[in-house]
Amino acid sequence: MTEEVRMVKRVTLTDVARLAGLSPSAASMILNGRPDTRLSRDAHDRVLAAAAELGYRPNVAARALRTSTSHTIGFVSDLVATTRFASGLIKGALGAAEAAGHVVLVAETGGEREREAEAVSALLDRQVDGVIFASMRAREILVPPIPSSVRAVMLNATSETHVCSVLPDEETGGQRAIELLRDAGIRDDILLLGYDADAERDLFRSATVAARVRGIYDTMAREGMRFSREESIWLWEPDHGHDVTARVLASGPPPRAIVCLNDRLAFGASQALGEAELRVPDDVALVSFDNDELAAYLRPGLTTIGLPHEAMGRRAVELLLAPDGPPPGEHLVEMPVVIRASLP
C-alpha cells in the first residue's frame, strides 16, 4: 500500500481495537461510554490511547443507521447568524448542544421561503435529530413541512404547526422596568417612548412586544403610577428616538423619566437630552429594553431589561433533546435586569 493511500484511508473501529489488543465490540462499548462494560480501567485507557494515536473518528452515518440518532441538530434562521445582536441565540444553542454531545448545522435563509425549504431538505438529508427554527425578531413564522417524526422547536418565534416555542418573558420584563422607576422614587411625569399598536401589529407581528407593553401598563396601574405623555414611533431607531424626544423637550418642561421600548430609541433620546443640556439621571432618568451592546458605552450607561438570547438558545436545545420530545407550549426565559447609571 502506498503512502498516499494510507493517508486517505479512514481509521476504523477495528483498527483501534487491534492496536488496543481488544475485540471491536469491547472497543465500541468503551468509545460509546457504556457504563456496564465490566472492562478494566487498563482496557479503557488502551482503547482511548489507541483512538487518539490513530486519530479515530466515529462513522456518524453508520451510527445514525444503527442507533436512529445522528447527534446532529439543524438550526434554521432568517438573519440570526449575521445579526450581531441576535447571534447569542446560536451561541447558546452551540454550547448546549456540545454539552449534550451533539453538533449543530446552521442554515441562514434571509427569510426567503424557497431558501428555507432548501435548507430544511438539506438538513433532513443529513438525518438531523431535530430542527430549531429561529427568528431574529420575535414573531410568528411559517415553517416548511417536515416529517412528524422530526423534532422541532421555535426559538424567538411561534408557529401554528409546531407548538413548542422559546420566548423571552417580556411581560415580566415590562413589570421590572416600571418597578425600577418606582424604587427610584419616580411615580409620575414619565414619558413612554415608542409604543404604537399599529406598528406592533403590522411591522413586528410580535406577541412579545405586546406582552412587554402589557407588563408596563399593568404595573403602572397596580402601583398607582401614570404616564404624563406617550409618543408613538413607527421605527425604533436612534434618529427617531432623538427627533421625538427633541420635540417633546421643545414643547414644555422635560419629563422626570423616559421609558424607551428599546435601546436604540434610548440612544437617540440620550443624545437629545444632552443637546438640551439636561443631565441623565439627575434631570431625566432613562430605562429601556434589549441590552444592546452599545448600552454599556453610553455615558452614563443605560439601565435596561436585557433579551436573554444565549439562555434562550440553550433552552431550545434542552427542549429539543428532552427524552419524551419537545414539550408543547411557550417556554419563557427570564429577562435580566441590567443596572447602570441612567437611574438615580
What is the average per-residue confidence, as pLDDT, rounded to a whole number? 87
Overall spatial form:
elongated
- The percent range for strand residues is 15-25%
The helix/strand class is alpha/beta
Q: Mind summarizing the main beta sheet?
A: 6 strands, parallel
Taking the alpha carbons of the first and last residues, their distance comes to 77 Å
- Low-pLDDT sequence parts: 1-8
The residue fraction in helices comes out at 40-55%
Give helix and strand order, one letter per element, not per position: HHHHHEHEHEEEHEHHEHEHEEHEE
From the alpha-carbon coordinates, what is the Rg to the nearest angstrom?
Answer: 26 Å
Strand order of the largest sheet: 2-1-3-4-5-11
Total strand segments = 12
How many alpha or pi helices? 13
Features:
single chain; 344 residues; alpha/beta; six-stranded parallel β-sheet; six-stranded mixed β-sheet; 13 helices; 12 strands; 20% strand; elongated; disordered N terminus
Could you explain the architecture of this structure?
- Helix 2 (13-20) crosses helix 3, helix 8 (170-183) packs parallel to helix 10 (207-222) and helix 11 (238-250) crosses helix 12 (263-275).
- Strands 2-1-3-4-5-11 form a six-stranded parallel β-sheet, sandwiched between helices. It has a six-stranded mixed β-sheet with strand order 7-6-8-9-10-12, with helices on both faces.
- Mean pLDDT is 87; it is low at 1-8.
- The protein has 13 helices and twelve strands.
- With 344 residues, the chain is an alpha/beta fold.
